[in-house]
Specification:
Radius of gyration: 20 Å
Domain Enoyl reductase (ER): 13-324
Strand content: 25-35%
Number of strands: 15
GO molecular function: acryloyl-CoA reductase (NADPH) activity
CATH topology of the largest domain: Quinone Oxidoreductase, Chain A, domain 1
Largest sheet: 7 strands, mixed
InterPro entries: Acrylyl-CoA_reductase_AcuI, ADH-like_C, ADH-like_N, ER, GroES-like_sf, NAD(P)-bd_dom_sf, Zn-ADH-like_protein
CATH superfamily of the largest domain: Medium-chain alcohol dehydrogenases, catalytic domain
Number of helices: 8
Order of helices and strands: EEEHEEEEHEHEHEEHEHEHEHE
Protein name: Oxidoreductase
Structural class: alpha/beta
Shape: globular
CATH class of the largest domain: Alpha Beta
Pfam family, one: ADH_zinc_N
Length: 326
């Protein structure tokens, strides 16, 4: 028997409760894992509270991220005792996820846990950190160099943004961080490596097709009019990596930045990212993230506290990461 947070649906309402399950209840998969940690992401919060249409079938164990130890494996790539990490692949949405003491998963979805990280550190990084690394790599792959100018990061105080600021700084880039709460988050962002702090309202004004060239590149987590404003200010031959739509999925811009300034717009997805690219990203994270990153705000909770935290994260009342100890 093992403990799990289980989501059920009743009268179109999502109900979350702690249940005792048997290993035989788990869905099919190649690898059985004793879960050490999961984490609470915004998407998890939407799933648990029912505020977003995240879960595709019930009952469901939420948790889009997990790390743990292999208990059994029918796949030659993994053996009992191996430490692994999982993010994405629809786990916690269409396949039982990480908020349980055990999980059975497809071996293709797993990545060996880098030796430098323990389970808690891996979940402090999670999907957000992996996405940030992929965005930073997109800027590097576009041949945007530190000497070319500042890199702008929108939503800089969020999960993806804060890791992106840290990684870019470690690679020698000057970073301009955009945040909606500059007076609250400014000092933290400077500690992470930002050289300039900009209030988000500056980027919420209507964008002209082309504005003054200010940024060598950008990582955008917001979308909509903020992204339009960013694109209008990118230097000739610059690049913008985009991974979020917190501000909306529309893009009120023109083709002018792309044609007249040779700007590259690169979409970044971490959910279905293939194994080799995913493994390389985790390895780079282990090389680049300084010890100081793990000193930031992190709340460790038990499974029984998750429902309350889920409500808080969807109401914007959580600072830093929430890590769930299984």
């Amino acid at each position: 028997m093992f403990k799990a947070l289980v989501l059920e649906q009743e009268d179109k309402k999502t109900l979350a409760g702690i249940r005792q399950l048997e290993t035989s209840d788990l869905p099919e998969g190649d690898v059985l894992i004793d879960v050490d940690y999961s984490s609470l992401n915004y998407k998890d919060g939407l799933a648990i509270t029912g505020k977003g249409r995240i879960v595709r079938q019930f009952p469901m164990i939420p948790g889009i991220d997990l790390t743990g130890t292999v208990a059994e494996s029918s796949d030659d790539r993994y053996k009992a005792g191996d430490k692994v990490v999982l993010t994405g692949w629809g786990v916690g949405e269409g396949h039982w996820g990480g908020m349980a003491e055990k999980a059975r998963l497809n071996a293709d979805w797993l990545v060996p846990l880098p030796q430098k990280f323990d389970g808690k550190q891996a979940m402090m990084i999670g999907t957000a950190g992996l996405t940030a690394m992929l965005c930073v790599q997109a800027i590097v792959d576009a041949d945007v160099k530190p000497e070319d100018g500042e890199i702008l990061v929108t939503g800089a105080s969020g999960g993806v943004g804060s890791v992106a600021v840290t990684l870019l700084s470690q690679l020698g880039y000057k970073v301009a961080a955009v945040t909606g709460r500059a007076e609250v988050n400014g000092e933290l962002l400077k500690k992470l490596g930002a050289t300039t702090i900009i209030e988000r309202s500056v980027f919420e004004e209507p964008a002209r097709p082309l504005d003054k060239q200010l940024w060598a590149g950008a990582i955008d987590t917001v979308g909509s009019k903020v992204l339009a404003k960013v694109l209008s200010q990118i230097n000739y031959n610059g690049a913008v990596a985009i991974c979020g739509l917190a501000g909306g999925f529309d893009l009120p811009t023109t083709v002018m930045p792309f044609i007249l300034r040779n700007v590259r717009l690169q979409g970044v997805d971490s959910v279905m990212c293939p194994f080799e690219k995913r493994q390389q990203a985790w390895q780079r994270l282990s090389e680049l993230l300084p010890a100081s990153y793990f000193e930031q705000a992190c709340r460790e909770v038990a499974l029984e506290e998750v429902a309350e935290c889920a409500e808080a994260i969807t109401n914007g009342q959580i600072t830093g990461r929430v890590v769930i100890k299984l």
